[in-house]
Write a structure and sequence with these properties.
Keywords: Signal. InterPro entries: Cu-Rt/internalin_Ig-like, SbsA_Ig. This is SbsA Ig-like domain-containing protein. It comes from Leptospira idonii. Helices cover 18% and strands 35% of the residues. It has 3 helices and 17 strands. Strands 3-2-5-6-7 form a 5-stranded antiparallel sheet, with no helix packed on it. Strands 10-17-16-12-13 form a 5-stranded mixed sheet, with no helix packed on it. A 4-stranded antiparallel sheet has the order 9-11-15-14, with no helix packed on it. A hairpin with a 4-residue loop joins strand 6 and strand 7. The longest helix has 29 residues, at 2-30. It is elongated, with a radius of gyration of 35 Å.
Length: 289
Amino acid sequence: MRMIHMKTIVTKQKSFYKFLILLTYIFFTSNCYLNPVVNSIVSPEETKENNSGLVLFAGLSGGNNVATLQVTGILKNSSGVPIENANIYLGPIFSSSVKDTPVSTTATTNSAGIFLIKLIPGIVPISVTDASGNFLGGFTLTVTPTSATQETPSSSQFSVSSLAVYNINDSISLETAPVGFTILSTNPADGATGVPIAGNLTFSIDYVFSKPVNVSTLTASNVSFMLGASQAAKTVTVSGSGTNITLIFGGGNIYGNYSYLITPTTGVKDMEGNSLTEKQITITTGMPL
């Protein structure tokens, strides 16, 4: 009986040791990533890949990219007026290429609200403050060698328009960059006198715009028409298309030898949806024909 009992104990001990060995094996194989040696054998490339990703991110966020193109655009406030001396701050550029000289990190708009930044193709987060440093909001640009597209909307405090892309070697400055959707000229010009009134008591002004006009936005409500110091009721008839438009004013408040202050407002849009930069003219009518 004693021999049988001892044999049973030995058998149980062997079973217990086998169980322990099996448990240890399962633990180390299922948790091999806890062991650096096992991890290096099982996944030798993972560390290398992770490091390369860190190098890419560090290179981009550190501003060590060579500029290959230039981007211009215009910032306007909610009323469509250009924002002068706005500060533009560029975040990390998410791109597929890493270079070795800096791109733009900041820029400032001129009196026409125009900015010029030097970039590489990629996705560019941008923040904007006014001249006093007050935060106005941000937006994101997707830049290719031939285009710049605003991917996220601006804040309610400003808009971005007239984005254009140039080669890095092009001679571009804030003074020569495109000025957006504007009135280039009028006939009669600002300050004209003796503007003829037609027999049906109307007078007309010929406008030349910098871009084709969305004629549907040239409505009476989008054209300020002041007789003296007050808005006067009027009708506005539109003739022409593209960049050459004639506005014919009538509606019963047309008088001889009176001065009118006329301003197409930011409600007028070009075909891309950009708001018009307001330009007012004062004309004085002659006597009706």
